[in-house]
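re the bet — no i am not wrong, look at it urself. input seq straight from the record:
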Amino acid sequence: MLNKLIANMLPYMPKKLVWVFSKRYIAGETIEEGLLASKLLNAKNIEVTVDLLGEFIETLEEAEQNKDYYIKIIDEFTSEGIKGSFSLKPTMFGLLINAEACYNYVHEVVKHAAEKNSFVRIDMEDSQCVDMEIEIFRKLRTKFPKNVGLVLQAYLKRTLADIKGLQDLNTDENPINFRLCKGIYVEPAKIAFKDYQEVREHFLEDLEYMLQNNMYAAIATHDKFLIENANKLLEKYKTPKNRYEFQMLYGVTPELRQSIVDQGHLMRVYVPFGKHWFGYSTRRLKENPKMANHIIKAIFIRG
Protein backbone atom coordinates (compact mmCIF):
# COMPACT_ATOMS: atom_id res chain seq x y z
CA MET A 1 0.00 0.00 0.00
CA LEU A 2 2.78 2.44 0.94
CA ASN A 3 4.72 1.57 -2.23
CA LYS A 4 1.70 2.27 -4.43
CA LEU A 5 1.05 5.54 -2.61
CA ILE A 6 4.62 6.70 -3.25
CA ALA A 7 4.41 5.56 -6.89
CA ASN A 8 1.26 7.65 -7.39
CA MET A 9 2.74 10.69 -5.63
CA LEU A 10 6.08 10.67 -7.46
CA PRO A 11 4.96 12.66 -10.55
CA TYR A 12 3.97 15.53 -8.24
CA MET A 13 7.18 15.61 -6.21
CA PRO A 14 9.95 18.18 -6.83
CA LYS A 15 12.31 17.00 -9.55
CA LYS A 16 15.36 17.43 -7.33
CA LEU A 17 13.83 14.99 -4.87
CA VAL A 18 12.91 12.51 -7.59
CA TRP A 19 16.47 12.67 -8.95
CA VAL A 20 17.80 11.30 -5.64
CA PHE A 21 15.99 8.09 -6.51
CA SER A 22 16.33 8.24 -10.28
CA LYS A 23 20.11 8.63 -10.53
CA ARG A 24 20.48 4.97 -9.66
CA TYR A 25 18.57 4.00 -12.81
CA ILE A 26 19.65 6.72 -15.26
CA ALA A 27 23.19 7.37 -16.47
CA GLY A 28 22.71 11.15 -16.50
CA GLU A 29 21.54 13.94 -18.76
CA THR A 30 24.46 14.21 -21.21
CA ILE A 31 26.29 12.12 -23.80
CA GLU A 32 29.39 12.32 -21.62
CA GLU A 33 27.56 10.75 -18.69
CA GLY A 34 26.14 8.04 -20.94
CA LEU A 35 29.63 7.31 -22.25
CA LEU A 36 31.08 7.05 -18.74
CA ALA A 37 28.39 4.61 -17.60
CA SER A 38 28.90 2.53 -20.74
CA LYS A 39 32.67 2.39 -20.29
CA LEU A 40 32.25 1.21 -16.70
CA LEU A 41 29.90 -1.55 -17.81
CA ASN A 42 32.21 -2.57 -20.67
CA ALA A 43 35.01 -2.89 -18.12
CA LYS A 44 32.86 -5.53 -16.36
CA ASN A 45 32.48 -7.49 -19.62
CA ILE A 46 28.96 -6.13 -20.13
CA GLU A 47 27.76 -4.63 -23.40
CA VAL A 48 25.22 -1.81 -23.59
CA THR A 49 22.30 -0.54 -25.58
CA VAL A 50 22.11 3.24 -25.37
CA ASP A 51 18.78 5.05 -25.19
CA LEU A 52 18.09 8.77 -25.40
CA LEU A 53 15.13 9.50 -23.12
CA GLY A 54 12.06 11.22 -24.47
CA GLU A 55 8.93 10.11 -26.33
CA PHE A 56 5.52 11.30 -27.55
CA ILE A 57 6.82 14.58 -28.92
CA GLU A 58 4.49 17.27 -30.25
CA THR A 59 6.25 18.67 -33.36
CA LEU A 60 8.27 17.40 -36.30
CA GLU A 61 10.92 19.99 -35.43
CA GLU A 62 11.52 18.02 -32.23
CA ALA A 63 11.67 14.82 -34.30
CA GLU A 64 14.37 16.24 -36.54
CA GLN A 65 16.34 17.44 -33.53
CA ASN A 66 16.13 13.96 -32.02
CA LYS A 67 17.32 12.43 -35.28
CA ASP A 68 20.32 14.74 -35.42
CA TYR A 69 21.13 14.06 -31.77
CA TYR A 70 20.93 10.30 -32.26
CA ILE A 71 23.40 10.55 -35.13
CA LYS A 72 25.71 12.52 -32.85
CA ILE A 73 25.32 9.85 -30.16
CA ILE A 74 26.22 7.10 -32.65
CA ASP A 75 29.30 9.05 -33.74
CA GLU A 76 30.44 9.65 -30.16
CA PHE A 77 29.92 6.11 -28.91
CA THR A 78 31.40 4.35 -31.92
CA SER A 79 34.43 6.66 -31.99
CA GLU A 80 35.04 5.83 -28.31
CA GLY A 81 34.95 2.12 -29.11
CA ILE A 82 32.01 1.35 -26.84
CA LYS A 83 30.87 -2.27 -27.05
CA GLY A 84 27.19 -1.81 -27.61
CA SER A 85 24.28 -0.75 -29.74
CA PHE A 86 21.44 1.78 -29.71
CA SER A 87 17.73 1.77 -28.88
CA LEU A 88 15.11 4.27 -30.02
CA LYS A 89 11.40 4.93 -29.64
CA PRO A 90 9.58 5.89 -32.86
CA THR A 91 7.32 8.35 -31.03
CA MET A 92 10.49 10.42 -30.49
CA PHE A 93 10.62 10.78 -34.28
CA GLY A 94 7.00 11.79 -34.80
CA LEU A 95 5.27 8.43 -35.24
CA LEU A 96 1.92 9.76 -34.02
CA ILE A 97 2.30 13.02 -35.95
CA ASN A 98 3.44 11.87 -39.39
CA ALA A 99 4.29 8.18 -39.84
CA GLU A 100 6.12 8.72 -43.13
CA ALA A 101 8.32 11.46 -41.69
CA CYS A 102 9.01 9.24 -38.69
CA TYR A 103 10.13 6.39 -40.95
CA ASN A 104 12.45 8.71 -42.86
CA TYR A 105 14.09 9.98 -39.66
CA VAL A 106 14.51 6.48 -38.23
CA HIS A 107 15.86 5.32 -41.59
CA GLU A 108 18.56 8.00 -41.40
CA VAL A 109 19.55 6.86 -37.91
CA VAL A 110 19.71 3.16 -38.85
CA LYS A 111 21.57 3.94 -42.08
CA HIS A 112 24.15 5.90 -40.11
CA ALA A 113 24.51 3.09 -37.59
CA ALA A 114 25.00 0.60 -40.44
CA GLU A 115 27.76 2.78 -41.86
CA LYS A 116 29.45 2.53 -38.45
CA ASN A 117 28.93 -1.25 -38.35
CA SER A 118 26.54 -0.80 -35.44
CA PHE A 119 23.00 -1.81 -34.57
CA VAL A 120 19.72 -0.06 -33.69
CA ARG A 121 16.79 -1.64 -31.90
CA ILE A 122 13.30 -0.25 -32.33
CA ASP A 123 11.56 -0.14 -28.96
CA MET A 124 7.95 -1.23 -28.78
CA GLU A 125 5.56 1.28 -27.26
CA ASP A 126 1.88 1.13 -26.30
CA SER A 127 -0.73 -0.73 -28.32
CA GLN A 128 -1.64 2.20 -30.59
CA CYS A 129 1.92 2.07 -31.95
CA VAL A 130 2.47 -1.66 -32.41
CA ASP A 131 1.35 -2.12 -36.01
CA MET A 132 3.19 0.99 -37.19
CA GLU A 133 6.38 0.02 -35.39
CA ILE A 134 6.33 -3.50 -36.81
CA GLU A 135 5.90 -2.00 -40.28
CA ILE A 136 8.85 0.35 -39.75
CA PHE A 137 10.95 -2.60 -38.63
CA ARG A 138 9.90 -4.73 -41.59
CA LYS A 139 10.85 -2.03 -44.09
CA LEU A 140 14.20 -1.32 -42.42
CA ARG A 141 15.05 -5.00 -42.01
CA THR A 142 14.89 -5.52 -45.78
CA LYS A 143 17.47 -2.75 -46.25
CA PHE A 144 19.66 -3.31 -43.18
CA PRO A 145 19.30 -7.00 -42.19
CA LYS A 146 22.34 -6.91 -39.88
CA ASN A 147 21.69 -3.55 -38.28
CA VAL A 148 18.14 -3.39 -36.96
CA GLY A 149 16.10 -5.28 -34.37
CA LEU A 150 12.73 -5.03 -32.65
CA VAL A 151 11.28 -5.27 -29.15
CA LEU A 152 8.31 -7.54 -28.45
CA GLN A 153 6.15 -7.55 -25.31
CA ALA A 154 5.02 -10.90 -23.91
CA TYR A 155 1.96 -9.53 -22.13
CA LEU A 156 0.26 -8.61 -25.41
CA LYS A 157 -1.97 -11.43 -26.63
CA ARG A 158 -0.91 -10.81 -30.22
CA THR A 159 2.84 -11.23 -29.71
CA LEU A 160 3.30 -14.87 -30.73
CA ALA A 161 1.32 -14.19 -33.90
CA ASP A 162 3.53 -11.16 -34.56
CA ILE A 163 6.65 -13.30 -34.22
CA LYS A 164 5.25 -15.83 -36.66
CA GLY A 165 4.20 -13.04 -39.00
CA LEU A 166 7.78 -11.80 -39.22
CA GLN A 167 9.32 -15.22 -39.71
CA ASP A 168 9.68 -14.66 -43.47
CA LEU A 169 12.45 -12.17 -42.64
CA ASN A 170 14.49 -14.77 -40.74
CA THR A 171 17.51 -16.34 -42.42
CA ASP A 172 20.42 -18.46 -41.22
CA GLU A 173 22.86 -15.81 -42.42
CA ASN A 174 21.00 -12.93 -40.76
CA PRO A 175 18.70 -14.23 -38.02
CA ILE A 176 15.92 -11.85 -37.07
CA ASN A 177 16.78 -10.12 -33.80
CA PHE A 178 14.07 -9.69 -31.14
CA ARG A 179 14.30 -8.33 -27.62
CA LEU A 180 11.61 -10.08 -25.59
CA CYS A 181 10.34 -8.35 -22.45
CA LYS A 182 7.21 -8.63 -20.32
CA GLY A 183 5.87 -5.18 -21.26
CA ILE A 184 5.28 -2.05 -19.21
CA TYR A 185 2.32 -0.13 -20.64
CA VAL A 186 -1.14 -0.27 -19.09
CA GLU A 187 -3.37 -2.07 -21.59
CA PRO A 188 -6.96 -3.42 -21.39
CA ALA A 189 -7.54 -7.08 -20.60
CA LYS A 190 -9.03 -7.54 -24.05
CA ILE A 191 -5.57 -7.28 -25.64
CA ALA A 192 -3.16 -7.99 -22.77
CA PHE A 193 -2.65 -10.77 -20.26
CA LYS A 194 -3.12 -9.46 -16.73
CA ASP A 195 -2.21 -12.40 -14.51
CA TYR A 196 1.45 -12.32 -13.43
CA GLN A 197 2.10 -16.02 -13.96
CA GLU A 198 0.21 -15.99 -17.23
CA VAL A 199 2.54 -13.29 -18.57
CA ARG A 200 5.50 -15.39 -17.51
CA GLU A 201 4.13 -18.44 -19.31
CA HIS A 202 3.63 -16.51 -22.53
CA PHE A 203 7.11 -15.01 -22.24
CA LEU A 204 8.53 -18.52 -22.21
CA GLU A 205 6.22 -19.64 -25.01
CA ASP A 206 7.41 -16.75 -27.19
CA LEU A 207 11.04 -17.41 -26.31
CA GLU A 208 10.75 -21.11 -27.10
CA TYR A 209 9.31 -20.33 -30.52
CA MET A 210 12.24 -18.00 -31.24
CA LEU A 211 14.80 -20.61 -30.21
CA GLN A 212 13.03 -23.39 -32.12
CA ASN A 213 13.17 -21.29 -35.26
CA ASN A 214 16.77 -20.11 -34.93
CA MET A 215 15.93 -16.48 -34.29
CA TYR A 216 18.24 -14.26 -32.22
CA ALA A 217 16.71 -13.86 -28.77
CA ALA A 218 17.56 -10.94 -26.49
CA ILE A 219 16.08 -12.16 -23.20
CA ALA A 220 15.18 -9.01 -21.29
CA THR A 221 14.14 -9.74 -17.71
CA HIS A 222 15.09 -9.41 -14.05
CA ASP A 223 12.77 -12.27 -13.10
CA LYS A 224 14.77 -15.21 -11.66
CA PHE A 225 12.02 -17.63 -12.64
CA LEU A 226 12.24 -16.53 -16.27
CA ILE A 227 16.03 -16.56 -16.26
CA GLU A 228 16.14 -20.10 -14.88
CA ASN A 229 13.59 -21.34 -17.40
CA ALA A 230 15.27 -19.47 -20.25
CA ASN A 231 18.48 -21.32 -19.40
CA LYS A 232 16.59 -24.61 -19.57
CA LEU A 233 15.30 -23.70 -23.04
CA LEU A 234 18.78 -22.68 -24.19
CA GLU A 235 20.06 -26.07 -23.10
CA LYS A 236 17.08 -27.91 -24.61
CA TYR A 237 17.65 -26.40 -28.05
CA LYS A 238 21.44 -26.30 -27.73
CA THR A 239 21.32 -22.63 -28.71
CA PRO A 240 24.78 -21.35 -29.71
CA LYS A 241 26.06 -18.31 -27.82
CA ASN A 242 25.90 -16.17 -30.96
CA ARG A 243 22.11 -16.58 -31.11
CA TYR A 244 21.06 -15.11 -27.76
CA GLU A 245 21.88 -12.67 -24.98
CA PHE A 246 20.40 -11.53 -21.69
CA GLN A 247 19.40 -7.90 -21.15
CA MET A 248 18.72 -5.85 -18.04
CA LEU A 249 18.02 -2.27 -17.08
CA TYR A 250 20.71 0.08 -15.81
CA GLY A 251 20.98 0.01 -12.03
CA VAL A 252 18.55 -2.88 -11.49
CA THR A 253 19.51 -6.22 -9.83
CA PRO A 254 23.28 -5.82 -10.34
CA GLU A 255 24.07 -8.99 -8.37
CA LEU A 256 21.78 -11.13 -10.51
CA ARG A 257 23.21 -9.47 -13.60
CA GLN A 258 26.76 -10.33 -12.59
CA SER A 259 25.83 -13.93 -11.87
CA ILE A 260 24.65 -14.29 -15.47
CA VAL A 261 27.89 -12.78 -16.77
CA ASP A 262 29.87 -15.14 -14.55
CA GLN A 263 28.06 -18.08 -16.16
CA GLY A 264 29.50 -17.02 -19.51
CA HIS A 265 26.38 -15.51 -21.06
CA LEU A 266 26.43 -12.26 -23.02
CA MET A 267 24.80 -9.51 -20.98
CA ARG A 268 23.62 -6.19 -22.39
CA VAL A 269 22.46 -3.35 -20.16
CA TYR A 270 19.94 -0.75 -21.29
CA VAL A 271 21.62 2.60 -20.53
CA PRO A 272 19.15 5.51 -20.59
CA PHE A 273 20.24 9.13 -20.43
CA GLY A 274 18.97 12.56 -21.40
CA LYS A 275 17.20 15.60 -20.05
CA HIS A 276 13.77 13.92 -20.23
CA TRP A 277 14.55 11.52 -17.37
CA PHE A 278 11.57 12.50 -15.20
CA GLY A 279 8.92 10.74 -17.29
CA TYR A 280 11.06 7.61 -17.54
CA SER A 281 11.48 7.52 -13.75
CA THR A 282 7.80 7.89 -12.96
CA ARG A 283 6.84 5.25 -15.56
CA ARG A 284 9.34 2.75 -14.16
CA LEU A 285 8.01 3.24 -10.65
CA LYS A 286 4.42 2.72 -11.74
CA GLU A 287 5.57 -0.47 -13.46
CA ASN A 288 7.17 -1.72 -10.25
CA PRO A 289 5.93 0.02 -7.08
CA LYS A 290 8.29 -2.14 -4.98
CA MET A 291 11.05 0.16 -6.21
CA ALA A 292 9.58 2.74 -3.81
CA ASN A 293 11.67 1.09 -1.10
CA HIS A 294 14.75 2.36 -2.90
CA ILE A 295 13.37 5.89 -2.81
CA ILE A 296 13.03 5.74 0.96
CA LYS A 297 16.55 4.35 1.32
CA ALA A 298 17.95 6.94 -1.10
CA ILE A 299 16.36 9.84 0.76
CA PHE A 300 16.75 8.80 4.39
CA ILE A 301 19.74 6.44 4.39
CA ARG A 302 22.03 7.55 1.58
CA GLY A 303 21.45 11.22 2.35
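see?? Residues 60-79 form the longest helix (20 residues). told u. also The chain has twelve helices and eight strands. so pay up
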